[in-house]
Amino acid sequence: MLARTALRTSLRAPARAFSSSSARQTKVAVLGAGGGIGQPLSLLLKLDPHVTELSLYDIRGAPGVAADVSHVDTDSKVKGFAADQLDAALEGVEVVVIPAGVPRKPGMTRDDLFNTNASIVRDLAAAVARVAPNAHLAIISNPVNSTVPIVAQTLAKAGVFDPRRLFGITMLDVVRSARFLSEITNADPKETTVTVVGGHSGATIVPLLSQSPFGKNITGEAYNQLIHRIQFGGDEVVKAKDGAGSATLSMAYAGARFTNALLRGLAGEKGVVIPTYVRSPLFEDQGVEYFSSNVELGPNGVEQILPLGPLSAAEEKLLAACLPDLKKNIEKGKAFVA
Q1: pTM for this one?
Q2: Is 220 labelled as part of a ligand binding site?
Q3: N vs C: which end of the chain shows fewer Cβ within 10 Å?
Q4: pLDDT for position 4
Q5: Does 199 appear as a known binding residue?
């Protein structure tokens, strides 16, 4: 009961003002700050009271983004770094958020991004291992199901992998679930929080509607349509942008929400619980080493991985469909580094 209450509290942070329950501040780097996600993410992190300094890096455009964001009247410093300044961008950083990579286009799946984004994420992770080995890493770059294992394997090769400090940001699935459920029930999205587990693509996304007082009575075709929209909500944005990109603004918002939760946990705030894709024991016996579920965050990063709780028969089926795909995605990431 305590964990559920904490989860609701964590996920209900106001959109325009992040929680600031502790005075501790942190230096944060955004790798890929010049991109469609990186720019709005940088702006939102400039508004976060836990951020004392922002280090913005990209192969192009980051100094300009930094100059622009630095004019926002909040008490944090901002510095931009060019393509040949990656190591300098990582010096003294405690949290690294990585949205770098190419966006999806119409007809592309997240797996279609693999060949390009895998090498980008690997190289950035290698730099973090070299310059900021104790930093906490939050991965946005798709496909998250595979890029998180890529980062883990890269850090492990360098001898600095700590599973408590590596996160895949799956918060957008939670944000979408709350919004879409609120549209059906005519409730405030703050009241329609849904725990989402599994991974961050298609059938690996498993919304636990039965655990929501607003979602547990959704059945039949309405249930099937809601599940499909949550699992493939990104396609709506890709189609609507007509080749001009994917979900950048909502992803930046979700990324900032997660980063704020991580910073609050690192600052010692109690009861910070949020879904995230981490090295997990929940389905390790089925060969699934990474899994997104409710995680309690704290000074060490991952403090506790919480159980899924009771599932409906429909959710058991969704989970059964999720695990084989998730296992393949994980193995693909590990094989890329090997």
Answers
A1: 0.91
A2: no
A3: N
A4: 39
A5: no
